Amino acid sequence: PAAIAEAAGLFAATNVDDLIVLALFSASSRATGRPRRWEIWAGQYLGVAVVLAVSLAVGRGLDLIPHDWLWLLGLLPLGLGLGKLAAALRARRRGEPAPAAVPGGLPGVAGLTISNGGDNIAAYAPVFAAGGVGTGVMIAVFAVGVAIWCLAGWWLVAHRRIAEILRTRGQWIVPPLYVLVALYIFWQTGL
């Protein structure tokens, strides 16, 4: 029970920001159908698995990603936010509908999950190195945590009014939020 509580606390404390990203994906899915719900879930699981695998390797002494380079993970949401904002501005100027504000498909969801979770490596690696929480327990708790987070992200935007706002104005709301995620990553990694 103590190991489960420790792993659950670690997951919750390090993934609060991911809940916001999941809410963005869910809102886009409800409003536009992209990304599909299964892509959100699969991308989230894939992204968290990659972050855990890298953390486990770092915890075992492998220096796969120098700490000074972790800020580079913020470039994905920054580029995504700025690119989507530029596309919305171009579409508005041409009188066309704006493209979807969130990345579509499994690779887009997984990539953003990895970028957003890259700073968590610094928290997970010492836990794996110290052996305080068993690897199996941590993976199992994180698997349950991802499911809870995906459901919570979906629930947060379950209101029809929120989905309507994001459907009609999402191209102006979502890109700045991605830029904020990038700035958060830069801040967390000490850039």
Give an overview in words.
This protein has 191 residues and is mainly alpha-helical. The chain is built from eight helices and no strands. Helix 1 crosses helix 7 (135-156) and helix 2 (16-32) packs across helix 7 (135-156). The N and C termini lie far apart (37 Å). The mean pLDDT is 81.
Relevant terms:
mainly alpha; globular
Q: Decide which structural class fits the backbone.
A: mainly alpha
Strand content: under 5%
Largest sheet: none
Mean pLDDT: 81
State the helical fraction. Answer: over 70%
Summarize this, please?
77% of the residues lie in helices and 0% in strands.
Layout of secondary structure:
Blueprint lengths: L1 H13 L1 H17 L4 H23 L15 H20 L10 H13 L3 H10 L4 H22 L3 H29 L3
